[in-house]
Task: inverse folding
């Protein structure tokens, strides 16, 4: 199949609201469905239609896909994939169970999660924990081809989904806590051969940047910008991994994604801006060349990975239609940018508790344009090594982590699952050894003080004004991806295990149901036999649930999360289930 036809087939399937053919809903990452049979007037009548046990414990992120009459379900490590027959009560058509070395598990920083499979050109694409990218025949489950994207022996693993676009599959890498150098790679969909790879840092030949044409806030980046702000060869173990989500604008032919934290977590060991960690990238899909970049958190001191999804919308600003990109960063700031030019339009806090910065310099003529002003009291760099900086908000897992937000074009509102969590952070000197943790900080986490006492909020956000419309407080972080629908409802899951439906205009709760385990998966919807269904994976884990998932009890374990979420075990337990909901007949 030619590139054009492979892509037009996929685009056509995405445009069909009856199916769910990519983890993000579509290339814009809006996670919005035109389906409205289930709506705010009848969602209170939802019932469980059927369930499926995945047979695997630990954290279940991502969601199923529905293509025609088949549902594809994935699991965390060992990354089993099931094809289920929707015409026959979810009977298993085929099951793919990769043989992976269990040695990869200790190299995965924050649980053995996987954010799901993808579809394209008649194939199901799975990026396994051990970085094997495998293409399975969608009808039979037979392996069409496979390719190794990294090496777990040096800390390279995978937790993310992939993005099929045109004739390519776009793939990232995890392992920033092991001194991995981040990259995004495009493989040819037909046979798995390498098309291009763009690194997060390194010389221009590695980062695929043109010193004159690639811009940062409208100005050329200059020669070897990916090494110029690093000391010596530190960039070679520089982090900036790419374990988040991808979006794509077919008109501009650009793919958008974010890069993670620089290695190590001890900022004193890596002077400089550490470009291009913590950066939004816009790359040409065909060549990988970077058109523009924007570094949100130069010289990160808090582990505020920039990997969260980029949501693409076309909206009016000052009376003019603009192609926008909206990004809710771990650092607690929500960014609205022009996705064509990389112009920064809005940068505002989407949780008032955020205190490490007073805000971003928005004056294009200023020397610090686009940079956040750091508050000295919460600067782990200024306070120094072996000093415990206390009361930093947000915590390292960010005001939002990978759990994706949704956008409704009907309400022009973003619906954002968030963490309402602060931390103490003590950096210390650490030596790099391949395949060993390269963290260099001790953390503890707790609910944001002087607030509602919980660790989460579900936030409605206006990306043009840069302000919160309303907030739903939650006891624990909302670690589940949201879904907005034309039925004027928004769905999300909670760490205790509730699937919730709320009014898209007011945030009023319309329905809730407690699934067998905590939810860190993403809600999706589809139709089958003319009936609308809503589905969610439950199975507690991920960074927030790592204590439960891995049986950790030391409060500082799990990179500081175990203590903060200790009470979670009073509400839920490990599991691995798919729960599918529908209205009664």
Result:
């Amino acid at each position: 199949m030619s590139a054009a036809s492979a892509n037009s087939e996929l685009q056509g399937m995405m445009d069909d609201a009856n199916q769910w053919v990519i983890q993000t809903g579509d290339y814009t990452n809006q996670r919005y469905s035109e389906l409205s049979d289930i709506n705010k007037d009848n969602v209170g009548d939802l019932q469980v239609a059927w369930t499926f046990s995945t047979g695997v414990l630990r954290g279940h992120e991502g969601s199923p896909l529905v293509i025609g009459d088949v549902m594809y379900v994935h699991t965390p490590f060992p990354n089993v994939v099931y094809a289920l027959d929707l015409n026959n009560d979810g009977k298993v058509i085929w099951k793919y169970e990769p043989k992976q070395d269990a040695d990869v598990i200790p190299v995965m920083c924050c649980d053995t999660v996987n954010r799901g499979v993808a579809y394209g050109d008649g194939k199901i694409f799975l990026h396994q924990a051990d970085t094997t990218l495998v293409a399975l025949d969608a009808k039979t489950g037979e392996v069409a081809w496979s390719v190794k994207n990294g090496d777990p022996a040096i800390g390279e693993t995978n937790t993310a989904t992939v993005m099929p676009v045109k004739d390519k599959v776009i793939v990232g890498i995890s392992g920033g806590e092991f001194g991995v150098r981040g990259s995004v790679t495009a493989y040819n969909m037909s046979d798995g051969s390498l098309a291009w790879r763009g690194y997060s840092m390194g010389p221009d030949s590695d980062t695929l940047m043109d010193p004159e044409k690639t811009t940062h806030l409208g100005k050329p980046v200059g020669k070897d910008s990916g090494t110029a702000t690093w000391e010596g060869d530190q960039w070679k173990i520089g982090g900036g991994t790419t374990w988040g989500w991808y979006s794509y604008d077919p008109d501009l032919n650009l793919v958008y994604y974010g890069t993670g934290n620089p290695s190590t977590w001890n900022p004193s060991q890596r002077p400089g801006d550490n470009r291009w960690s913590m950066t939004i990238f816009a790359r040409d899909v065909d060549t990988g060349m970077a058109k523009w970049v924007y570094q949100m958190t130069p010289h990160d001191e808090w582990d505020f990975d920039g990997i969260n999804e980029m949501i693409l919308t076309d909206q009016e600003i000052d009376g003019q239609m603009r192609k926008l990109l909206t990004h809710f960063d771990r650092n607690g700031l929500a960014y609205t940018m022009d996705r064509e030019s990389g112009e920064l339009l809005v940068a505002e806090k989407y949780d008032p508790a955020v205190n490490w910065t007073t805000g971003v310099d928005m004056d294009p003529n200023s020397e610090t344009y686009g940079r956040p002003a750091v508050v000295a009291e919460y600067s782990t760099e200024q306070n120094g090594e072996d000093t415990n900086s206390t009361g930093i908000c947000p915590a390292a897992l960010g005001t939002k982590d990978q759990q994706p937000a949704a956008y409704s074009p009907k309400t022009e509102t973003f619906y954002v699952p968030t963490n309402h969590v602060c931390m103490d952070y003590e950096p210390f000197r650490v030596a790099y050894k391949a395949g060993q943790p390269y963290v260099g900080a001790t953390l503890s986490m707790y609910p944001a003080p002087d607030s509602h006492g919980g660790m989460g909020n579900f936030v409605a956000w206006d990306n043009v004004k840069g302000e919160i419309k309303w907030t739903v407080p939650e006891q624990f972080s909302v670690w589940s991806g949201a879904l907005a629908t034309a039925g004027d409802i928004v769905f999300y899951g909670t760490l205790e295990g509730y699937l919730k439906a709320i009014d898209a205009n007011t945030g009023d709760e319309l329905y809730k149901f407690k699934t067998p385990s905590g939810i860190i998966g993403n809600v999706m919807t589809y139709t089958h036999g003319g009936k609308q269904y809503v589905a969610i994976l439950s199975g507690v884990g991920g960074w927030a649930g790592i204590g439960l998932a891995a049986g950790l009890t030391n409060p500082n374990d799990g990179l500081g999360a175990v203590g903060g979420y200790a009470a979670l075990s009073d509400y839920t337990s490990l599991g691995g289930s798919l729960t599918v909901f529908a209205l009664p007949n």
Summary: Helices lie at 3-14, 204-207, 225-228, 380-383, 546-550, 561-564.
